Amino acid sequence: MTVTKETAIGDILKSSREAAYILMENGMPCVGCAVALTETLEEACMVHGLDADDLAAQLNDYFDIINEEEKQDGFNFDE
């Protein structure tokens, strides 16, 4: 998955529930809120005073690691 500022929080969490930890560690504790799931990363970051570009980069780094591990294990769901 590639995360942009326009990516919905719900889509991020569908790709990996563990991504919630990255969001929460960055000051977004309400990732389970029904409203948060439909918000874009940029909208959620504005509410919480966070940098959407920085958070997207952190999430993309995480997904890059996950994708690399899947390739090593013989799985690649992005193909």
Order of helices and strands: HHHHH
Largest sheet: none
Distance between the termini: 11 Å
Given the structure, what is the number of helices?
A: 5
User: What gross morphology would you assign?
Assistant: globular
Specify Rg, calculated over alpha carbons: 12 Å
CATH architecture: Orthogonal Bundle
Mean pLDDT: 89
Strand content: under 5%
**Care to count the β-strands?**
0
Number of domains: 1
Q: Which residues sit in consecutive blocks of at least 5 with pLDDT less than 50?
A: none
Q: Quickly name the level 1 CATH class.
A: Mainly Alpha
CATH topology title: SP0561-like
The residue fraction in helices comes out at 55-70%
Topology of this structure?
Blueprint: H1 9-15, H2 19-25, H3 34-38, H4 41-48, H5 52-72
Helix pairs in contact: 4-5
Describe the structure.
It is a single chain. By secondary structure, this protein is an all-alpha fold. The protein has a single domain (9-72), classed as SP0561-like. The chain contains five helices and no strands. Helix 4 crosses helix 5 (52-72). The model has no long low-confidence stretch (mean pLDDT 89).
Key features?
single chain, 79 residues, mainly alpha, SP0561-like, 5 helices, 61% helix
In short:
The protein has 79 residues and is an all-alpha fold. The protein has helices at 9-15, 19-25, 34-38, 41-48, 52-72.
